[in-house]
Amino acid sequence: MGILYDYEDVVLIRQAEKPGDPAEITVNCPDKTGLGCDLCRIILQFGLSITRGDVSTDGKWCYILFWVVGKPNTRWNLLHKRLMEVCPSCSSASGISYYKPEFQQQPKPPDVFLLKFWCFYDRKGLLHDVTEVLCELELTIKRVKVSTAPDGRVMDLFFVTDTRNELHTKKRQEDTIHRLKAVLGDAMMSVEIELSGPEVTACSQGSSFLPPAITEEIFSLELPNERSNGSAASNSLSVTMDNSLSPSHTLIQIICQDHKGLIYDIMRTLKDYNIQTSYGRFSANAKGMCEADLLVMQVDGKKIVDPNKRNALSSRLRMELFRPLRVAVRSRGPDTELLVANPVELSGRGRPLVFYDITLALKLLNIQIFSVEIARHMIQDREWEVYRILLDEGDGFCVSRNKIEEGVRKKLMGWE
Predict the structure, then answer these.
(1) Which of 147, 176, 234, 280 could form a disulfide bond with 294, CB atoms 3.0-4.6 angstroms apart?
(2) SS3 at position 110
(3) Cβ–Cβ under 8 Å, residues 146 and 369
């Protein structure tokens, strides 16, 4: 392999010729551990689904081709820019070490800003409308605190980071406020944006304690074949490893039910285990099943020989593909609480668009949100992003808990 394109052509996007056809994203650049995960994360963040993919690398240079489908209003130029940002520069190819670990030096964390606004009254879908605007503005939601006063007024606290690193400027803040006013209309009372200090950020962390009932219910590490009741998804999930087909690579074959972000879930798991993918092929069929063949090796350039390591990686892949997100609806005193949790990458990044999908699902179910807490918790030696949402069970509330859980889960998994 070699440098085939100028740097501007490291990422090429060919949009679909007809509605419903997939677009093609080609990446040709120096390799780094976890590059596939980073690319898949950005594609997921733009609301696109990967229907097919081919990945190959010699450890120094990689070639990736994804076929994606998604929203007709996708901002392709912006997607191109964001994909380019995670690709190593072409000039780094000569000096890149073989399967160099990515996290030798962590970059400076982005500034966290507090977006605070009051509304005169609440309405169904208000929180989703705000979340949609923030996503369009490329503001990443880190924490949310939402509360409703007895008189019906709503105070929303959003702790966000700015992908563009411009929220400290007056122009960027004015544009954000203008977009919020446009969607909230006469419901908005006031809005403020300020840099969040350590003492303010600490107030956003939520309770450091989760009741045992919650941890037992949604953070179970049981694998599908250990469940007594089973399910169609678990029965169709298969992860096998074979060391006999290659002198230097381990073959991983995966068959499972397709879901939104599935390739991202595979890639982030391999990235967390510091496993390099030398070749990969993915495809999803019309019946909702996905097949993946991966030739992988460890950071030292050798196949995975240790049976304990193979079993650990296989078990983690099966668990992440069976339950990439945890969803439960339970009682919290007299109220109904929706809980959603997703594992955080070792790099510290959470799954994209989780809060967007939650609020959209509740909006479609015609359910109002009373309060929200988003915080990160260390549970069973893993960091989780946990969403605790109290639902407004006012007059006319008649949606069963099973229907709420099913609606949120389907939206998160893309099963619509």
Answers:
(1) 280
(2) coil
(3) yes
